[in-house]
């Protein structure tokens, strides 16, 4: 069995009387790809934020490569080490990129912050990262506003890869892109997965993305995991009514949105 890149054990998170995450557990092997799917308010993004460290779990723990990931890190060195374990790529990379900073400066600053002892190798590493995400050297001097949405997402992915994380969390990372650009980014991620041992955690409502890029999937509804298993099996023969509803909600010939809305209210 491969070593687990990530384990979530009994995660709970409440906001007032609302249980956003209710006893959620899963594992992600090194080099594996796991999807977390569900509608708005299902708890999937809160779960991702707990894994990254942007939210604190009320109960439960997160382990990276077998080590418990502390809720807080003390001191600069611990914070940087913790950040290197898990990186996140957001839906809109423009909001996470400094509009005044070029692509090369973004990558160089990340390397300087995390690997100051290898400063002499930063030029080589910047070029490696640009090649890895399919951006040529001409993009190195560009600022975010000069790039397309797909190019900006590639920069965000390169920045995340720069710290050599164990886990890469992608929160609706292709949802804002055109369909053709989505395909390019998903192909890029598939290639990166083949080259590295990084575990990918996809947070999405798009079952097409899940089908394309994940080995396993968990389905969340009202903060709980209602179904889990190999992606192909879950999507081919869903056992839980909510999973079936998600599949039936995908537009197709004969699709009845009113019937879907009624079924959703019934659940």
Topology overview:
Elements: E1 4-15, E2 18-29, E3 33-37, H1 44-52, E4 59-64, E5 67-68, H2 75-85, E6 86-89, H3 103-114, H4 122-132, H5 149-162, E7 167-171, H6 179-195, E8 199-204, H7 207-213, E9 216-221, E10 224-230, H8 231-236, H9 241-248, H10 257-266
Parallel strand pairs: 3-8, 3-9, 6-7, 7-8
Antiparallel strand pairs: 1-2, 1-4, 4-5, 9-10
Helix pairs in contact: 3-4, 3-5, 4-5
Q: Can you describe this structure in just a few lines?
A:
With 267 residues, the chain is α/β, with parallel strands linked by helices. The protein is built from ten helices and ten strands.
Tag the structure with descriptive keywords.
267 residues, alpha/beta, Rossmann fold, 2 domains, six-stranded mixed β-sheet, four-stranded antiparallel β-sheet, 10 helices
CATH superfamily of the largest domain: P-loop containing nucleotide triphosphate hydrolases
What Rg do the Cα atoms give?
19 Å
Tell me the strand percentage band.
Answer: 15-25%
Order of helices and strands: EEEHEEHEHHHEHEHEEHHH
Structural class: alpha/beta
Number of strands: 10
Number of domains: 2
Tally of individual helices = 10
Question: Can you give the mean pLDDT?
Answer: 88
- Major beta sheet, strand line-up: 6-7-8-3-9-10
CATH classification class of the largest domain: Alpha Beta
- The coarse silhouette is globular
CATH topology label of the largest domain:
Rossmann fold
Helical amount: 25-40%
Largest sheet: 6 strands, mixed
């Amino acid at each position: 069995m491969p070593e687990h890149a990530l384990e979530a054990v009994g995660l709970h998170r409440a906001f007032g009387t609302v249980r956003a995450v209710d006893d959620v557990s899963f594992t992600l092997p090194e080099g594996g790809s796991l999807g977390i799917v569900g509608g708005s308010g299902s708890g999937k993004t809160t779960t991702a934020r707990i894994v990254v460290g942007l939210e604190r779990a009320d109960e439960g723990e997160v382990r990276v490569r077998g080590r418990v990931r502390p809720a807080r890190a003390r001191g600069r060195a611990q914070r940087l080490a913790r950040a290197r374990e898990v990186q996140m790529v957001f839906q809109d990379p423009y909001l996470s990129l400094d509009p005044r900073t070029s692509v090369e400066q973004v990558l160089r600053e990340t390397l300087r912050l995390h690997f100051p002892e290898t400063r002499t190798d930063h030029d080589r590493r910047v070029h490696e990262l640009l090649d890895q995400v399919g951006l040529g050297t001409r993009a190195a001097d560009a600022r975010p506003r000069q790039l397309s949405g797909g190019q900006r997402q590639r920069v965000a992915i390169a920045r995340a890869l720069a710290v050599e994380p164990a886990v890469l969390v992608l929160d609706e990372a292709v949802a804002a892109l055109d369909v053709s650009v989505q395909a390019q980014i998903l192909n890029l991620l598939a290639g990166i997965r083949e080259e590295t041992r990084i575990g990918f955690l996809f947070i999405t409502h798009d079952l097409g993305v899940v089908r394309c890029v994940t080995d396993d999937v968990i389905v969340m509804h009202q903060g709980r995991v209602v179904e889990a298993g190999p992606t192909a099996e879950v999507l081919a023969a869903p056992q839980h009514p909510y999973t079936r509803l998600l599949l039936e909600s995908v537009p197709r010939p004969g699709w009845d949105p009113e019937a879907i809305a009624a079924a959703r209210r019934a659940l």
